[in-house]
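Bit of a strange request maybe. I'm writing a small parser for structure token strings and I need a real example to test against, not something I typed by hand. Could someone generate the tokens for this chain?
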Amino acid sequence: MKEIIKRPQSFVGSSILIPGDKSISHRGLILGAIAQGLTEVVDILEGEDVQSTGKCLRALGVKIWKEGRSTWIEGVGRKGFQTPTENLDCGNSGTTMRVMMGVLAGSTIEATLFGDASLSKRPMKRVCGPLREMGAEIILTNENFSPLTIKGSALQGINYELKIASAQIKTAIILAALQAKGTTTIFGEVGSRDHTERLLESFQANIKVSSGEIHIPGSQYLKAAKVIVPSDPSTAAFWIAAAALIPNSQLELQNISLNPTRTGFIEVIKRAGVKIETKTHIQNPEPIGKVRVQHSLLKGFTIEKDEVPSLIDEIPLLAVLATQCEGTTVISGAEELRVKESDRIEAVATNLRSMGAVIETYPDGFKIVGPQTLKGATIKTFHDHRIAMAFSVAGLVADGETIIEDAQCAAVSYPDFYLDLKKLTKENP
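Reply from user aminoacidic:
Good idea to test on real output. This should exercise your parser:
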């Protein structure tokens, strides 16, 4: 499927409902599946990645059904998962595969996980390493990739220094630790998104987070909970950027997650001169509120390694934004972009250059000097939803038509992205 994007007259909206947060949706399903009792997850994301998690859990004997806005999960609790009759298809979802590795590591069953061509190229040894230290039996393809097989084992708590700021790795260790004997302590790069830690308190888990360390006593069983899924700030970012870039635009979005581990994008664009306001209405377990933004004159900005975990998904979009900023933008410390759904540094560079922009790339980021005039072009998405959506925003400020190839890949996190784009824009007469 292709989508054609043109420069609109304006970008105005106050009624768009941003889909539920992808990270919290995954975790609500998984925690509900291992808990004792009936868990309700409200406003779950219906994207393909979250559906992959649901399919894997159903294959393990978990009953999941939907009624209106609520998704219900009948947790397996102490009885544990059933041995699947087929391999578990994680689709394009790295979160599904990596977090399920932690869930299955201490189970009583054996299962094989696989994914699509993109997921099969993404590194899994980084998750496998700490789980093996705990006693997990995991067989990887070429000692780093999927398909991978997990044989449930008795686990032992460990002290582990996390050297990559990855919420997926952190969550896999935490969920394995719940099943282990003894206490697990995680330290090091633990400042990535903290939805797992917050949600576990709702599921009555014993977990302590303090001064750069996470302590998880083992041999725990969760109790069912109700999870309210706020709107995804990484998804809202596309419309926020569009409103900032397009003259005469203003936008108000409700029910957005304002978790401090997810608001790095907002903090950075404030430095870039974007007129944006946030107001928090709910504090626990997830800060939730509204965001207002309007067209702004922009200036270059700098992002360094310590900020990257809070905005890793938004960096392709920030690259597009940088082309319209006055001055130099430098993003560094983002080498994780190389091993996402695509090599996002190269994907960004390839597509910006096709639009006539100049960008200098590095192993861990890039430099852009603006403002630059973008020209409509045919965009290669590399089957990556973030690239598709970021360059759809680029098309809104480019001269001429921009064609997004393989546009349906946006459904991974935002099934109605192009429908909402049409609602929010009015084409030039």
